[in-house]
Amino acid sequence: MRTRPEVYSPLQNTGVWLAAWLYNVESTDDTVQALTDLGGPHSYQGLPMAHLLADVRSEADLEAPEPVIRLVLWGPGQAATLRAGSPAMEALTPAGALVVRGASGVNHILVPTYRERGVTWRWFEDSERLPEPEWLTPGEADALLSRATNEAAVLIEAAGGTRAELPNPRLAVGTLADFYDTPGLPAGVTPRAAKLFARADVVAATVETVTDRLGDHSFDPQLFGLWRHIRTARMAGVADAVMDYRREYLAS
């Protein structure tokens, strides 16, 4: 099993860019370029990305009390917060989904499929209330991720540490962390969310370096236990960024 799909999804930055665009913080051109950088050309019902953006704009409730864009990630030990047996759940890939909050409580669920030649989107609607996410604050998610990382480090150190077969494992971690951040975040992202994304990137890069680059699976149980906290941190960061855009929008 490769680590990256479990600790990283382009949808983290995609969700934040869509929110920045919806709340008029970023232009359409810059948003399209960022989403293209995140996965290549996008298609929706056989049409270009502009048609997806138009539908998102027409359906999104920008004044909803909940985040108008919500990131859904899932994996081992963590169920997706979509209705079991629903068409959206059946279509879900390891990349996750974005939930757009619409008028009258309708949830518009955007499910992408990432391929080498680009991204294909499917659109689902669900009028029933979705399972509640954890709704952690950035501080709570950061504390959980930090504590889990420290506990894993203690266990690994007590067991004698990992092999260091790379010329510079620390450099490898830094390089991967830079990859996770590409192509960056839109303007106006809260420092709280940016910090949370950065911590999640570093922890994800560390896990990938040990398991995939070093090929050391001695500590898989300790490292795999971090996956849930990495995903949760990413979802909490997106929710915080989206709600801050909402506050600025309503105050203007």
TrEMBL record:
Domain of life: Bacteria
Source species of the chain: Corynebacterium stercoris
Protein name: Uncharacterized protein
